[in-house]
């Protein structure tokens, strides 16, 4: 059993902080949420805990070295706490597959969405649609006909992708379009509803209109 105080440096709108919180909820682990205003002068605690990227989330667990980057934090949580279902697959090939797609979301898909939200770059909208088409096929392969990417339970890729749904909905709302829809991505539409209503998620994800005010 893992011991030691657990703190998460956070900012309310960050989808990456949301990943950490959902992972802890799945594992039934109590933690302290430490708010950090990343838009103003960054706190000494954040700069000391994450001197390389200077961003949230940061997991502080007891006297161990702080853990940074949301995907790494999720793996650390899964490896450290045995309570609750596993977040990552035990099968090496399945684990590699979900890690590949999570990296794709962070390195390719989410930056395209950020450029639309920040700069109104409509030329990148097609990239979002292409990415959703890829994820539609991915969930069919990973879920094997079950409720989530992780099967019967929310897993690593569910959290990685699901945490971005709020930003996707804001992108749709502000640009008067629908990217996640029944005709093109029926499996993802059903999955998104299940994910957002899950007990580990519903109290963590901010309302779409609240996120929209941030942008």
Automatic annotation (TrEMBL):
A GO BP annotation: toxin catabolic process
Catalytic activity field: RX + glutathione = an S-substituted glutathione + a halide anion + H(+)
Source superkingdom: Eukaryota
GO cellular component: cytosol
Pfam family, one: GST_N
Compartments, as annotated in UniProt: Cytoplasm, Cytosol
Domain GST C-terminal: 91-214
Family matches, as Gene3D superfamilies: 1.20.1050.10, Glutaredoxin (3.40.30.10)
EC number(s) on file: 2.5.1.18
Key words of the record: Cytoplasm, Detoxification, Transferase
Domain GST N-terminal span(s) in chain numbering: 4-85
InterPro entries with a match to the protein in the record: Glutathione-S-Trfase_C-like, Glutathione-S-Trfase_C_sf, Glutathione_S-Trfase, Glutathione_S-Trfase_N, GST_C_Tau, Omega/Tau-like, Thioredoxin-like_sf
GO molecular function, one term: glutathione transferase activity
Family to which this protein belongs: Belongs to the GST superfamily. Tau family.
Its job: Is involved in the conjugation of reduced glutathione to a wide number of exogenous and endogenous hydrophobic electrophiles.
Protein name, entry field: Glutathione S-transferase
Phylogenetic lineage: Eukaryota, Viridiplantae, Streptophyta, Embryophyta, Tracheophyta
């Amino acid at each position: 059993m893992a011991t030691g105080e657990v703190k998460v440096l956070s900012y309310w709108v960050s989808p990456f902080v949301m990943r950490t919180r959902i992972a802890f909820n799945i594992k039934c682990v109590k933690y302290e949420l430490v708010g950090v205003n990343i838009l103003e002068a960054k706190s000494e605690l954040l700069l000391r805990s994450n001197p390389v990227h200077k961003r949230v989330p940061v997991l502080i667990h007891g006297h161990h070295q702080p853990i940074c980057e949301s995907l790494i934090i999720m793996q650390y949580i899964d490896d450290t706490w045995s309570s609750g279902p596993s977040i990552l697959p035990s099968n090496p090939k399945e684990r590699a597959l979900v890690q590949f797609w999570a990296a794709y979301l962070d390195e390719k898909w989410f930056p395209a969405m950020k450029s639309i939200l920040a700069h109104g770059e409509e030329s990148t909208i097609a990239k979002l649609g292409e990415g959703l088409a890829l994820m539609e096929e991915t969930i069919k392969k990973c879920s094997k006909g079950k409720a989530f990417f992780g099967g019967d339970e929310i897993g690593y890729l569910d959290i990685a992708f699901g945490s971005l749904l709020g930003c996707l909905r804001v992108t749709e709302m502000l640009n008067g379009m629908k990217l996640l829809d029944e005709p093109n991505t029926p499996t993802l539409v059903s999955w998104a509803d299940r994910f957002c209503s899950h007990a580990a998620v519903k109290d963590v994800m901010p309302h779409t209109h609240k996120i929209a005010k941030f942008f």
